[in-house]
């Protein structure tokens, strides 16, 4: 069991309870996670300085948890031709402020041993890994109804950091290299906006290998209205596309998830998510709704213990199927204990680690052949 994920597991359990239990229970859990202060721009943490290494969770020029690899694999960032700009998910679950101080070592440790190690590292055979620290919005921002105005301000502040980090990356690091955009959960929320603001109908689109926007529901309506020229991926070698999925145990009722989170994807565009949601199957990289056999599952990777450990690869663990906007999986042949109410959100990357790793390599090669 991954001890480094214990706090995140507890928080996610609370989140699921909030989404699925009766009103009184939900209110109690939300109250536990609610920030003590009102959102105020005068009280937000200091702006990150992205010229400093301390403002980055991962850089190809420093040793970090994005450098880890499973058994038999190599970290190839030193020779990689492409870059990945990775935006980590929420690791700031409780606090007085609506946004994390990026110098909070306790939260940073959760980020580094959690998402950076388990998710960002998947790309280190295909690209140099850049992962900014940012003043992420507190988890409560995705749960509240009555403080939605403050939550949106917290998310706007978080995105402003992500965009500044990306601009710094473009100016000082990119040097005309192909780019992968990737994120999970809150990081996916910001990644989607980044793709719209910097790639859609922009010259930079010609550098986009793909955008792995994982762990959030993206209604087709949002893509049609806001990113009509960036398609959802439908093949393993397609470039300039969006790849997205949310993982659940087969048979799970996902309607409570689709009705629980009142996201504001872009200013002026709201949705209750009761719409057709995009789903790409990471075993085939298509949007087909056919069930895909476990033989196409290249491997789950679960890091644990030391930051430098090299875990084994658990292949052929699950079959998959995109249906009703969700990615359903068969019961894993190995028990991972990350299934909460049928939701494998925490394993959106980890469960398909080797499929994503090989696909990132393949898409970079396809991009280079086209350009």
TrEMBL record:
Q: Supply the source organism for this entry.
A: Uabimicrobium amorphum
InterPro entries in the cross-refs = AB_hydrolase_fold, DUF3089
Gene3D superfamilies named in the record: alpha/beta hydrolase
Quote the protein name from its UniProt record: DUF3089 domain-containing protein
Q: Would the keyword Acyltransferase be found if you checked this record's keyword annotation?
A: no
Q: Does the keyword Cytoplasm apply?
A: no
Q: Which UniProt keywords apply?
A: Signal
Q: Which Pfam families match?
A: DUF3089 (PF11288)
User: Which PROSITE patterns does this chain map to?
Assistant: PROKAR_LIPOPROTEIN
Extract the signal peptide range.
Answer: 1-23
Source domain of life is Bacteria
